[in-house]
Amino acid sequence: MSESRSTSSSATARSVFFFGSFGGILAGYDQGIAAGSLLFIGPALQLTPWTKGLVVSSLMFGAIIGSLVAGALAERWGRRPILQLAAAVFGLSAIGMAVAPGVATLVAARVLGGLAVGIASVVVPTYLSELAPTRNRGGIATLNQLMIAVGIFAAYLTSLLLSPWGAWRWMLGIALIPSLLLLLGVSRSPETPRWLVAHGRPDEARRVLGTQVGEQEADGVLADIQRTKEAEPAGDRARWSELLTPALRRPLLIAVGLAVLQQFIGINTIVYYAPTILRAAGFGDSAALLNSVGLGALSIVTTLVTARVVDGVGRRRLLLIGGTAMLLSMSVLAVLFGGDLLGGLGGATGAVICLAVFKVAFSLSWGPLMWVLLPEQFPLRVRTMGVGVGSFVNWTANLLVSQFFPVLLVFGAGAVFGIFAGFAALALVFTALCVRETSRRSLEDLELAG
Fold it and tell me: pTM here?
């Protein structure tokens, strides 16, 4: 009987983590689908370079707003219901994109989708971190990036399959499916025990812990959460100004630095514009989309590897390893494009290899680990607000890169990739000087250590 209960509890925990991370698919699909559909939306709606950037970046406008409001909403109402809200809003956005009669409606629908994505980008990492056992918190939190990678891959694959018909409306409208799955899955998932303790519901927290970490560990974890909660300053709800207090300045600096550098390294030029880049390297539309699907699949496999090793190898070491590989791949891309070396098969193959190395390195390090590290920086009282600031900065940086990349290409792709290589070098310095190791330490230990 005891073994049966243990197996059932383990299966329940896996289901909760799966659906808890499912919000990442919203972000991944809505980002990735822009890459393939843009090849067909451009001629259909007569997009200029500026409006092309606007269609892509409009998602980020909404995400910026969503990331700002998500923290306060999740602190007041809980992580679970706000994830449900994000799923519903995203579903409405998918319908709006599919039936959009023109650029203005399409942009408005993508802003709405961005609102849901921004909310999910704050709540999903927090939800996973607060539910996961300390021993494998990094691996479980990495599920967020894994689902983002799955969403991007699904978007690339959908674009490839529908490309013979140029069916960009179907490409966008299919996003309704993951939103419905998230809504259904989260409705059967629990609230996090840390939020329940913070809101005076320890008995419910104890029941949730029993299903997530096991009955034997539940009492000890609950005691640690309560002790940390008691050590917090008394008062009303947390305020944004608390993030500027001396005790939280360093965590805030780390969160902002990670969020900015993750985008300025250049990942979303690959996500949004991989087919465009590959076409510039000499591939046709179908070959460019096929290569993009391959890059998406590679990202999924690498993120799975990260989930297996992150708690053993450590967050900081993986950031340094991945940052070095991204620096090298972006530098070679800068030489290939800047030196006009793409004319032959060797140059085009070299570009694909560099893109693949970059995607592997990002998926091994800065892709998942930024979202793993953000919730680990902040105490329970202001955790979703702190993650919200990091997410806001990340989406703002994402917006700048995605909006201005097509415009900057006027100066040459080599120069743009050279800039990204410079930011990769800066990321290495930032990691070495500022980022602390958080593996195998409970959220409560990290909070008390300051």
Answer: 0.84
